[in-house]
Amino acid sequence: MEVSQEKGLRHQLSAGEMAMVAVGGSIGTGLLLGSAAAIELAGPAVIISFVLAAFISWIVSLALGELASAHPAAGAFGLYGELYLNQWAGFLSRTGYWAAISISVGAEMVASATYMAYWFPRVPAFSWIVVFSLLLLLINLRSVHDYGRFEFWFAMVKVVTIAAFVVLGGALLLMGRVAPQYTNHGGFFPKGTLAPLLAMTFAIYTFGGVEFVAVTSGESRSPKDVARASQLTFVMLTLVYLGAIAVLVGVVPWNRTGVGESPFVTVFRSVEIPRAGGLMNFVVLTAALSGANAALYISSRMLFSMARSGWAPPWLGHLNREGSPNRALLASSYGIVAAFLLEKWAPMDAFVYILRGAFFGLILSWVVSLAAHVCFRRKLTGEELARLPMRSPLGAWGSIVGFVLVCAAVVRTWWDSRVNLVSSLVYLLLCTLAFLLLRSKRNQSTMST
Predict the structure, then answer these.
(1) What per-residue confidence (pLDDT) applies to 84?
(2) Is the separation of the CB atoms in 114 and 33 below 8 Å?
(3) Per-residue DSSP letters for 385-397?
(4) Which one of 123-137, 204-218, 339-353 scores highest in mean pLDDT?
(5) Confidence at 374, pLDDT banded by 50, 70, 90
(6) Distance, CA of 409 to CA of 144 (rounded, Å)
(7) How many other CB atoms sit within 10 Å of the CB of residue 378?
(8) How far apart are CA 106 and CA 50, in angstroms?
(9) Dist. CA 140–CA 105, nearest whole Å
């Protein structure tokens, strides 16, 4: 169906490169800056938020890995929704996801400007947004092989550094150089026992990236690479996130965090390690740029797939000589404009507004994929199941549990945040109207061909 319509994409990504694209897109502002907002909501109990988010992410990664290895395509969950649910579900997931990932580029740009203020406090934030945006656009216009190699090492810097942070922070705690902060300033639950649920939006957002493997599968070397990449991504993200957040709330008092700088930088400054704050600031800057780089890649491939399958203007399905969907890439960079506007009109809240606005579109991909996986499993014969490059040990029941948990998390965010509620309703309304307008035209085009 859609796989054949995605001709022109180069199948050059290895399992390691696919995993690093996913890790690169995930380990960004969600952990390095967004963790501050989560800690402010839940205190040390934010660890529970991340454990719950990791469990949900595990279920999602199993379902997506199985589907992606069976149907490798840049259309990913949009294709799964259309194949196993209905056209509306497929369109809603891919359109909402494209909008959310594109807008998340803005969050990474705002974060990058925040980090640069550490060294250049007098330089306007919008100057850094311009410079970094041009750099990332140039990288994404190159071949996918060059992009994958670049993102592999970009993401590796983050993984190694955060692993070093976990080891260093753990050593400081064990050696008694830093007094553990888990029960100081109000106890483990300073905001109440239900507070970890309030921080779930930010915790789940940090795991946003496990679905990147499904999108990159359209340029993978083989279905087996997709399966390996899915497993690698979840393991790396879980170890990095849980280790980092456990050390973070143990070293720095929860009431001293904020989104003015990364709490990871705060940790190194608080223990007075020479120049460590500047080094860590460089790392979190690299992480933000890597996250924006991966988000541009993913959003451009999603829009390209939509154009090739009739759900977006056909001219967006154009590829340049390097095999990059250059027009879809430029259209997907609108999040940079959002960053400009929010940095001008709401600089103190820009990051949180963008993150909350992007949450629902991102989580739609999880909801649709879990529902599609249930239908996918029910249609499989035993022989077909045995041939899958990757099999989820949880089967359909795992996806049912995951679907309920993800939906509960979404409803909870609607209750807690007006930004989440309004942005979700806007997504649903605009995407549904666009679907109704495009459906008849697309079906007529399909029938005529």
Answers:
(1) 92
(2) yes
(3) HHH-SS--TTHHH
(4) 123-137
(5) very high
(6) 35
(7) 10
(8) 24
(9) 13
Interacting residues of 179 by C-beta distance below 8 A, sequence separation 6+: none
| Single-letter code of the amino acid located at 61 | S
Check: CB of residue 301 under 8 Å from CB of residue 215.
yes
> What's the mean pLDDT in 199-226?
75
- d(Cα 406, Cα 60) in Å, to the nearest integer? 10
Q: How far apart are alpha carbons 237 and 241 in whole angstroms?
A: 6
pLDDT for the residue 33:
58
Which tokens in the block code for residue 155?
């993401």
- Answer whether 215's CB lies under 8 Å from 229's CB: no
| H or E stretch at 102 | helix 87-116
- Give the span between the Cα atoms of 303 and 296, in whole angstroms: 11
pLDDT of residue 348: 58
Asked whether 269 and 277 are in contact (CB, 8 A), the reply is yes
Region of 176 (left: φ > 0; alpha: ψ -120 to 50; beta: rest) is left
pTM of the entire predicted model: 0.81
pLDDT in tens, 78-129: 888 888 998 898 888 888 888 888 877 877 787 788 888 889 988 888 888 8
Using an 8 Å Cβ cutoff, are 405 and 123 in contact?
no
What's at 60, amino acid-wise? V
Q: Average of pLDDT values for 16-36? A: 68
Report yes or no: 399 and 63 within 8 Å, Cβ to Cβ: yes
Residue 126 near residue 343 (C-beta atoms within 8 A): yes
Q: Are 76 and 217 in contact (CB under 8 A)?
A: yes
Residue with token string 């196993």? 84
Joined tokens for residue 123: 């330089």
Look up residue 272 and give its two tokens. Answer: 């007075």
Q: What are phi and psi of 388, to 5 degrees?
A: -65, 135
The residues, ordered by sequence, that sit 6+ positions from 429 with a Cβ below 8 Å of its Cβ are: none
Provide the sign of the torsion angle of the four alpha carbons 201, 203, 209, 210, taken in this order: negative
Q: Which token pair is 280? A: 């860590």
What is the structure's pLDDT at 371?
A: 94
